[in-house]
Amino acid sequence: GQNIDQPTEMTATEGAIVQINCTYQTSGFNGLFWYQQHAGEAPTFLSYNVLDGLEEKGRFSSFLSRSKGYSYLLLKELQMKDSASYLCAVAGGYQKVTFGTGTKLQVIP
Amino acid sequence: GAVVSQHPSWVICKSGTSVKIECRSLDFQATTMFWYRQFPKQSLMLMATSNEGSKATYEQGVEKDKFLINHASLTLSTLTVTSAHPEDSSFYICSAQQGGFANSPLHFGNGTRLTVT
Known about the structure:
The complex is a heterodimer.
Chain A: E1 3-5, E2 9-13, E3 18-25, E4 32-37, E5 44-49, E6 53-57, E7 60-65, E8 70-75, E9 84-91, E10 97-99, E11 103-108
Chain B: E1 4-7, E2 10-13, E3 19-25, E4 32-38, E5 45-51, E6 57-58, E7 67-73, E8 76-81, E9 90-97, E10 106-108, E11 112-116
Parallel strand pairs in B: 2-11
Antiparallel strand pairs in B: 1-3, 3-8, 4-5, 4-9, 5-6, 7-8, 9-10, 9-11
């Protein structure tokens, strides 16, 4: 089966850095995604990791350790618009993508 | 980039009626599309995998006779909620993938908010 854990909520200050962690146990692994979802909207793609290491894309970076079943999303220079839910999702066998429950991030002034 | 269009964005229907939701890949062909459901303050739950030209694969606990999926072409999948009840009220989101995961993530439609009265 699939089990994905991430914190339910986080609060961070505008301009700061925040790290959102995700741990997973899955049957089959074809990569890990991070998505951003604003309330009432569909998720939007942020990053994809399939090999160990850090992927950097502008203010957002994502890290993966397959041996530890662990990933994190790093957001730098936080902006108010970054307030959203961040979903960790794992691609398992048969192209199935399973989502974690999401981390609701609140950015405060 | 890859675009997935979902229609309608929202729908209100009476209990006992059926509702059809369309999901289209606009600039790529998708042999596989996925249908998710999301209840308030919860994550996306995979309902079924829609396969072009063959039967959909449903997740455990999802009634295939209630949630009819048709994937008649490489760019269109439909989800029909039959005999809808208030407990079916939810946010339904489709997604499609262009190529393998290494080259393309899942792209999501904008979702359909279904309210059954």
